[in-house]
Write a structure and sequence with these properties.
heterodimer; A: mainly alpha; MetI-like fold; 72% helix; B: alpha+beta; D-Maltodextrin-Binding Protein, domain 2; 2 domains; 4-stranded antiparallel β-sheet
Chain lengths: 297, 303
């Protein structure tokens, strides 16, 4: 028995070794960095120890507050749309009265955007949304829907909305698969009982499907929140020089962190931003969790 | 090692069509200061051309006409009067439709080197929008590397009909400097490498023959500067030109903050050009953003 156990440890050790080197060590190192004024040259251990100074700066930083608001706006629009689309599609495809064919094909098509690399997606949309030469403006102008080209990425509101929609397009297929699986997991008996009792589609959806989907919805919202608050690639690639678009409207919290660290070389401060972000995500995940299970908890 | 001196790289056939003369000395006279530059822009506009691809193109002349570092020896941020004046020049380019609205490094910008591009700005009526209007860009404010590695590959069909001349002020854009890390374990090898890159005649001659690129070692440049010619520029001696411009520039103004501050300033000026911010708002926001990026720099807001 004992020998067996020892081999067991050997077999699970690769994960722990890798996790220690590439997970725990950087986490602890950046915690230390956040107490220094490290500038990215030499070793962080030679940098000056400044205590909580970086965190004090974070609390009074209006640019970080703007990044916080931007991130929430972009994520908020995205999650509402993404979840609605996924729910509607799931209900249509799982309707026992409709019995739609071709589920596998559609599931693959919906999921396709998620398989593309984000940089290609950003490039694609830069071409589509370009002010003077983009496909979208050309199309709208051609059909007379607008009289002047709209600078989609040049105004804060449309730039943020564009990013939200791109995120929705990227992720609705993923959410659809999870929600659809959730609906499949609900026993058919409930739907049949509802049908026999004369419930219409809306009643079935709101009284049967939705309540039983709650755990799945919670999973989708929390994972999306964790990912969404760390939004970086699309805003970075879609703003010139990665500066964060018109009037800083595409500066998300992680983009701000990135620029502080790798553009301006304030590694100490960027580490403090990272820990601030960690606490923000933790707090909001707990709020969502408690909020959705109000009755049960 | 070297700063990359720059010029104004233009399409000769447009100069011939608009002014009947494509000689670099003639075009230099046309662009000799910002007032003349704007006059030339108007003449080009009347003929259906745009003097520059985008407003930001002239930013290098702002730096060149009052060469001061962004940050001085006392770690104070310096915003020159020239930079402030050039905000208005940039706005004029936009308001009077002298630019082709093709932002630097955008797909349209690259395309504009090869031929006419669509220009949609100023469309007030739907009917007009239906006939897609195309414009052609006259020239580019670019340095040595811009000629060889940006314009040439994107203007293959018109090679041989381009010209190189000077703009309102001499400037440089980028450069390469090599140094040796004080803690290096291979200082000897590093020093050999530095020597090769800067003083090895055999290597530098090879490099020149392969690329035609501007070098900074006199024994080599002296040898080639009288005979150099670039077929892309209709046989013009680009070497002599860039070397002469290099003598006029002030490379000491380089600081480690340049890229970051240039970008902050550039994006704020375009907000002024777009009419989203007033001049004072731009300047105030500039001080705030620089302070946020580089807390160690003193700005006028600190006082």
């Amino acid at each position: 028995m004992r020998t067996k156990n020892r081999y067991g440890y050997l077999f699970i050790s690769p994960f722990f070794i890798v996790f220690t080197i590439f997970g725990i060590y950087p986490i602890l190192l950046s915690l230390y960095m956040s107490f220094t004024d490290f500038k990215g040259f030499g070793s962080p251990f030679n940098a000056n120890f400044v205590g909580l100074q970086q965190y004090a700066r974070l609390l009074g930083d209006s640019y970080f507050r703007q990044a916080f608001v931007n991130t929430w706006k972009i994520w908020g629009v995205n999650i509402v749309l993404q979840l609605s689309i996924a729910l509607i599609l799931s209900v249509i495809f799982s309707d026992i009265r409709l019995k739609l064919k071709g589920l596998n094909l559609f599931r693959a098509i919906f999921y396709l955007p998620n398989l593309m690399t984000v940089s290609s997606v950003a490039l694609l949309f830069l071409f589509i949304l370009d002010w003077q030469h983009g496909a979208l403006n050309s199309l709208l102008l051609k059909y007379g829907l607008i009289s002047r080209p709209v600078n989609w990425l040049g105004q804060p509101a449309t730039a943020q909305l564009s990013v939200s929609l791109i995120q929705t397009w990227l992720w609705f297929g993923h959410t659809f698969i999870i929600v659809f699986a959730g609906i499949q997991g609900i026993s058919k008996d409930y739907f049949e009982a509802a049908m026999i009792d004369g419930a219409n589609r809306a009643q079935t959806f709101f009284k049967v499907t939705l309540p039983l989907l709650k755990p799945i919805m919670l999973y989708v919202v929390i994972t999306s929140l964790i990912g969404g608050l760390q939004l970086f690639e699309i805003p970075f690639l879609m703003s010139q020089n990665g500066l964060g678009g018109p009037e800083g409207s595409l500066v998300t919290m992680v983009l701000y962190l990135y620029n502080q660290a790798f553009k301006y070389r304030n590694f100490g401060y960027a580490a403090a931003v990272a820990y601030g972000l960690f606490i923000i995500i933790l707090v909001f995940s707990l709020i969502v969790f408690k909020g959705m299970f109000k009755e049960e908890v | 090692m070297a700063s990359n001196s720059g010029g104004f790289i233009y399409k000769r056939w447009i100069a011939r069509k608009v002014w009947g003369n494509d000689d670099p000395a003639f075009v230099a006279e046309k662009l000799s200061n910002m007032e003349n530059f704007m006059k030339a822009a108007e003449e080009l506009k009347q003929a259906g051309y745009k003097i520059v691809p985008d407003e930001g193109a002239i930013r290098w002349f702002a730096k060149g006409s009052e060469p001061k570092p962004w940050v001085n020896g006392k770690n104070e941020l310096q915003l020159t009067q020239a930079q402030i004046d050039f905000m208005d020049y940039q706005k004029q380019l936009r308001d009077k439709e002298y630019s082709a609205m093709a932002p630097e490094w955008s797909p349209a910008w690259f395309a504009s080197m090869g031929g006419p591009i669509p220009f949609n700005a100023g469309w007030d009526k739907v009917e007009e929008a239906k006939n897609s209007k195309k414009v052609e860009v006259f020239g580019y404010v670019m340095p040595t590397w811009g000629l060889h590695y940006v314009i040439k590959p994107n203007a293959k069909e018109t090679a041989g009909d381009w010209g190189l001349t000077s703009g309102p002020s001499p400037y440089f854009w980028g450069g390469t400097w090599v140094g040796i890390y004080s803690g290096s374990q291979n200082k000897g090898a590093a020093w050999e490498f530095v020597k090769m890159m800067t003083h090895d005649q055999e290597f530098l001659n090879w490099w020149y023959n392969k690329t035609g690129d501007l070098l900074s070692y006199k024994p080599v440049t002296d040898k080639v500067k009288d005979t150099a010619k670039d077929d892309f520029l209709k046989g013009q001696n680009h070497y002599e030109f860039f070397l002469k411009e290099a003598e006029k520039i002030t490379p000491e103004i380089v600081t480690k903050y340049d890229q970051g501050i240039d970008q902050i300033w550039g994006s704020l000026v375009s907000e002024y050009v777009d009419g989203k911010k007033t001049k004072d708002q731009v300047i105030n926001e500039f001080y705030k953003q620089v302070k946020n990026a580089y807390p160690e720099i003193k700005t006028p807001l600190d006082k």
